[in-house]
Amino acid sequence: MVSQITRGIKISVLTTFEGTYFKNHKLHFAFSYEITIENHSKDSVQLTSRHWEILDSLNDLETVDGEGVIGKKPVLKPGESHTYNSGCLLASPFGAMRGWFNMVNFTSTRNFKVIVPSFRLSAPFALN
User: Fold this and answer.
1) pTM
2) How distant, in Å, are the alpha carbons of 21, 43, 119 from that of 99?
3) DSSP state letter for 69
4) CA 33/CA 127 separation, integer angstroms
5) Which of 17, 81, 85, 86 is surrounded by the most beta carbons within 10 Å?
6) Among 33, 113, 98, which Cα is nearest to 70's?
């Protein structure tokens, strides 16, 4: 697990290799990840959007931007947390993801970014 705190918001990530399969006559490596967002600040906040950079060992970079996470824009009061699961496909058995969540602080009405620490995606059979 990797974790990082930005402005009182803690992001923790767990990853799992899900297997391989063929899609469009090409081998893909499937990974899932679980992200927990914890509000350690004194203010209520809301996640409004996300930005991901997904890189595989073949140096293919995919950038993904979108509203909320898995169709939700969770509001977190002080001490609350939100956990969700998602996934991605890579063209190789190794890769990494990093990014950020755009959030709004309800007390100050200011927008801010919460960094998602870089996390590795690796298929166990490919490790030495």
Assistant:
1) 0.93
2) 26, 23, 10
3) B
4) 19
5) 17
6) 33
